[in-house]
Hints:
Chain A has no helices and 11 strands. Chain A has strands at about 5, 10-15, 20-25, 30-35, 45-50, 55-60, 60-65, 70-75, 85-95, 95-100, 105-110.
Amino acid sequence: SQQGEEDPQALSIQEGENATMNCSYKTSINNLQWYRQNSGRGLVHLILIRSNEREKHSGRLRVTLDTSKKSSSLLITASRAADTASYFCAQETSGSRLTFGEGTQLTVNP
Amino acid sequence: GAVVSQHPSWVICKSGTSVKIECRSLDFQATTMFWYRQFPKQSLMLMATSNEGSKATYEQGVEKDKFLINHASLTLSTLTVTSAHPEDSSFYICSAALASLTGELFFGEGSRLTVL
Lengths: 110, 116
């Protein structure tokens, strides 16, 4: 399969808790990106981490990248009910061509 | 940020008809656009890469005669699902590459196709 894997497939937490999602991929990458998708909507770009970077922060988001293990993680701190959505990692190999992971459905309970 | 618009956002059609979906970059020029298909509770699968002024590049297993892609201008790409059947019912999403160093893609809101 061209797709990478994400785990967990589903995650349910309480507001205020942290949420961690993991992504593994198979090929060499230029960068890895994380997206959010609300049900039935398009994708919203969250953060991009380049292959020569190991960690990146954006607000309550923290992304790590381990190219030796071909894995990445997305941490959402102090989660809110509004963070409920599906989260996808996507690997860019060349020319903006993205391969998406299977996604994690995050539910944040108020 | 850059805006990508898709139209229609949803469409219902009878089996055997053809449906055209438009993807427009509203405030930037996109030499490359991508078309994805997403089945319920699944990930996005890249269908094809649409290049302005040239033929689209289709992913393995995607029928080019079934899914016609035209990228006639730097702001518009269209996907036509020809002779649609119920199994073509899906959520179709386009994205456009912003010509910058970020590598960021901007996605449309998607078009939900239901074939009866």
